[in-house]
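Researcher: Let's do a round of design. I'm pasting the structure tokens now; please hold your answer until I've finished.
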């Protein structure tokens, strides 16, 4: 799996894109937000979720990787 590290991506755009994709999979991460404490790093805070939501997220990712 290739990884890239770039702060050229707007974190607000990334949050909205992720929120939209998760919504399409029926998953809500209530704490999903831009990490305002570290603007130079452009971090996205995924927050905490219940175990059942984590399993649904894992399932959605696994289905996507199988495609």
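Researcher: That's everything. Go ahead.
Model: Designed sequence:
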């Amino acid at each position: 799996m290739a990884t890239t590290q770039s702060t050229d991506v707007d974190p607000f755009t990334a949050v909205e894109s992720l929120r939209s994709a998760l919504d399409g999979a029926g998953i809500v991460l209530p704490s999903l937000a831009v990490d305002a404490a570290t603007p130079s790093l452009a971090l996205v805070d995924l927050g905490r979720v219940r175990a059942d939501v984590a399993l649904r997220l894992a399932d959605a990712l696994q289905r996507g990787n199988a495609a």
